[in-house]
C-alpha cells in the first residue's frame, strides 16, 4: 500500500534511533528491511503499515500526556499576570 505523505511526515517526526528494532521485536514477520523500505519507498504491505502505525501511535499518545492542553485552567493561569492592574 502507498503511505500517505502526511502519515510518513508524522512518523519521521516521531522517529528516533532504535525504533526499527523495537517495531520488529513487537511484530513477528516484520523485518528491519521492511521498515527501511517503507520509509524510503513510501509503500509497504498492510502488515508492515499496521506495525509501524501502531508503534508511532503509542509514542504520539505518550508524548501528548506531557503536553499542556489548550484552554486548560493551568494554561489560563500561566497567561494571566499575577497582579493585574485594576
Can I get a quick summary?
By secondary structure, this protein is mainly alpha-helical.
What does this structure look like?
The chain is mainly alpha-helical and 86 residues long. It has one domain (5-68). The chain has helices at residues 5-14, 19-26, 32-41, 46-64, 73-79. Mean pLDDT is 86; it is low at 75-81.
Query: What is the tally of beta strands?
Result: 0
Determine the number of helices (DSSP H or I, runs of at least 4 residues): 5
Count of domains:
1
Terminal Cα span: 61 Å
Beta-strand residue percentage: under 5%
Helix content: 55-70%
Rg, Cα atoms, Å? 19 Å
Structural class by helix and strand composition: mainly alpha
Main sheet record: none
Average pLDDT value?
86
Order of helical and strand elements: HHHHH
User: Unreliable runs, pLDDT <50, ≥5 residues?
Assistant: 75-81
Shape: globular
Give the SSE layout.
Layout: H1 5-14, H2 19-26, H3 32-41, H4 46-64, H5 73-79
Descriptive keywords:
globular; about 90 residues; 5 helices; mainly alpha; about 0% strand
Amino acid at each position: 500500500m502507498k503511505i500517505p505523505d502526511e502519515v510518513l511526515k508524522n512518523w519521521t517526526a516521531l522517529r528516533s534511533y532504535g525504533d526499527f528494532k523495537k517495531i520488529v521485536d513487537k511484530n513477528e514477520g516484520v523485518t528491519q528491511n521492511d521498515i527501511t523500505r517503507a520509509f524510503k519507498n513510501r509503500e509497504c504491505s498492510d502488515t508492515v503499515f499496521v506495525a509501524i502505525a501502531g508503534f508511532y501511535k503509542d509514542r504520539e499518545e505518550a508524548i501528548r500526556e506531557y503536553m499542556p492542553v489548550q484552554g486548560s485552567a493551568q494554561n489560563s493561569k500561566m497567561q494571566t499576570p499575577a497582579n493585574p492592574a485594576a
